[in-house]
Write a structure and sequence with these properties.
Order of helices and strands: HHHEHHEHEEEHEHEHHH
Bound molecules: ligand PTJ
Radius of gyration: 17 Å
């Protein structure tokens, strides 16, 4: 249906993946709308990965590799768009994978778990009764987490997150890594490392960085993090949006 030479072919294919994910009960109807907001920012970014997104990706990989108990939190949009990369990132960093939904239903949790299994995940936390721990001071369904996963994690990776939970995770003393096309969102601001880029470009790049840095000594990884400043990163990402990311 989508001609290969269509100027917006990539973006249209991403939409198709989400709609397919919606039909397969992975994606919430609201997730389609959330993607539309992301697309608007991506358009302003020139639909390209900026230099600062690349730097943030390196810092994100370093933070995940330095973690003692890293956990990748997966929602419907992430499961539909980048299931393979989620499993690969878990393999590269030793992170565990947990399903955590805003619009939580057990059917969607299981559909997402099964999708991740199909892509080779050995273990998926947070499904059904496993999510028996609670994030304090958070009223959304996202508060229910796995005691062995997000609850016990020191670093949590939260692609496409809502601000409330990011702030609550930070209050719990966790380090948070996110991917969010909106550099002004509360998640983008509250996280310790924010990759301002489209999930579909950022995830393969993050997997590649994680494999490239895996095996480096801790001091080298700590230096990458020490040299990274998320406030500056967000300010530069806003600049990239203003300039249509032409110079990146
Ligand atoms: O699967 P569920 O039930 O957990 O629900 C997931 C959604 C995404 C519906 C839920 O978390 C939600 O409502 O999210 P928000 O608050 O709309 O936030 C989504 C953020 O992700 C916004 O800042 C968007 O700009 C951004 N975003 C959307 N699509 C992408 C994106 N960032 C990166 N890549 C994208 N493809």
């Amino acid at each position: 249906m989508i001609p290969a030479d269509h100027p917006r072919a990539k973006s249209l294919h991403t939409r198709e993946k989400l709609v397919d994910g919606f039909r397969r009960n992975l994606v919430a109807a609201e997730g389609l709308i959330a993607h539309g907001r992301g697309e608007a920012f991506d358009y302003l970014l020139g639909e390209r990965t900026s230099a600062q997104a690349r730097a943030a990706t390196k810092a994100a990989a370093a933070m995940l590799l330095l973690a003692k108990r890293p956990v990748l939190s997966v929602n419907g949009n992430a499961a539909a768009l980048v299931p393979k990369e989620i499993v690969e990132l878990a393999q590269a960093t030793g992170a565990r994978i947990e399903v955590n939904l805003f619009y939580r239903t057990e059917e969607r949790e299981k559909a997402i778990r099964d999708e991740l299994w199909r892509y080779g995940a050995k273990e998926v936390l947070g499904v059904g009764g496993r999510a028996s721990a609670r994030i304090p001071e958070l009223s959304s369904e996202r508060r229910r987490v796995d005691p062995e996963g997000i609850f016990a994690a020191d670093v949590v990776f939260v692609p496409l997150e809502d601000g409330d939970r990011t702030e609550a995770l930070v209050r719990m003393g966790k380090r948070v890594v996110t991917i969010d096309l909106n550099p002004l969102s509360r998640t983008a601001v509250a996280a310790h490392v924010t990759i301002v880029d489209n999930l579909v470009r950022a995830m393969p790049a993050l997997v590649e960085q994680a494999w490239a840095l895996e095996g480096k000594d801790r001091r080298a990884l700590e230096k990458i993090l020490a040299d990274f400043d998320n406030k500056k990163n967000l300010a530069q990402s806003l600049k990239a949006i203003r300039s249509g990311n032409k110079r990146a």
